[in-house]
Amino acid sequence: MRLFECGSLVPGCEWHTRANDDAEIVRRVVEHMRTAHGETIIRENMIDNIKARITDEKNANAA
Ligand SMILES: [Zn+2]
Fold first, then answer.
1. Is 63 a member of any domain?
2. How far apart are the CA of 16 and the centre of ligand 1, in A?
3. Which of 36, 39, 51, 61 yields a CA-CA distance of 20 to 30 A from 28?
4. DSSP category for residue 39
């Protein structure tokens, strides 16, 4: 599972999302940026910034 925390890009934002693939994460984050942060123009470097901050979520139960 992949995880994106908005706080890594927008300090103080508690929003986060999980999905199985990066494309789905990016789609949701772009929508969040538009609705929550008023980013009506999503630049290509914004997409890169999002992708750079997607992490693999550690499964706490696996150990
Ligand atoms: Zn946010």
1. no
2. 8
3. 61
4. -
